[in-house]
Amino acid sequence: MTVSNRYLLRILCAVFSSMFFFACSLEDDAIIELHNRAHAARIPVTGLSLDRTDLTLNPGKSATLIVTVQPADAWIKDVTWYSSDTGIAAVDSNGKVTGVTAGIATITVTAQDGGFMASCDVTVANAGIIIGDTSVKLYLNNGNTVLTEGGSTTISAAETGTYTVSIDQGNYSEILWYVNGTVLSQYSSSLSIVLTKRIPGTYQVTVEVIAAGERNTGSHSFVVE
User: Is 0.70 surpassed by the pTM of this model?
Assistant: First the structure.
C-alpha cells in the first residue's frame, strides 16, 4: 500500500467514525427526550373529594358516592374504597354503598397516588324511606315526630283535631298517597295528607314516590281505639 493510499484510508476511517458517533448521539438524545416527556406527563394527584360527607340509607338500599380526583389530568386516578364496619354499610370498588343493618359507619376513599383520603359518614336506619340518593322520611304533625317505616301509632277515637302525615320536599316526578290500599286522589302530588276520622280501626298510610326513575313506597299504620 502506498503512502497516499494509507493517508486516504485514515481519512475515510475518521469520517466514518465521526458519522457513527453523530448517529449514536442523535439516538441517545431522542431517547432522553422521550424519557423526559414521559416523566413530564406523569402529573401527580394533589387531592380528592366526595360529592357528599354524610348519607342516610335503609337496610338493603344503596347509593353511589362520586369521587373527584384533583387535578383532572392527574396521571394515576386509581382509588380504593373502605368501610369502617361492613356489618353496617358495605362499599364496592365503584363507590356503591349498601346499607346492611342499623348503625353508623364511615366510608373512606384513598388515592393510590399520594395517599389522599376523603370520607362519608353513613347512617343506616329503619326509619324513613330512601328514594335513590335522597333521604325521605315520614313525619307526623308538621315534622314534630319521625314515623318509623312499617311501624304503627295508636291514637284515641275521643281525640279532637287532625293528624298530618308528610314527607320532605324533593325532586319527585310523582307522589301518591294511599289509606288501606285506596289511593287518595285529592292528595296527588302533595307532600302531606290530613287524617281527621276517629272511627276505631287500623289505617295503613302509604306514600309512593318516583324520583330519579326509581319507585319506592313506605308506610305507617294508625290504630284508632
Answer: no
139-156 CB burial, b ≥16 within 10 A, e <16: bbeeeeeebbbeeebeee
Q: Which three cell numbers stand for residue 121?
A: 359518614
Please state the three-class secondary structure of 20-79 as a single string. HHHHHHHHHHHHHHHHHHHHHHCCCCCEEEECCCEEEECCCCEEECCEEEECCCCCCCCE
Residue 221 has φ and ψ, to the nearest 5°, of: -100, 145
**In sequence order, what DSSP letters do the residues of 132-201 get, joined into one string?**
TTEEE-EEETTTTEEEPTT-EEEE-TT--S-EEEE------SEEEEEETTEE-GGGTT-SEEEE----SE
C-alpha cell at 198: 276517629
Distance between CA atoms of residues 115 and 179, nearest Å: 53
Per-residue pLDDT reduced to its tens digit, 180-190: 888 887 777 77
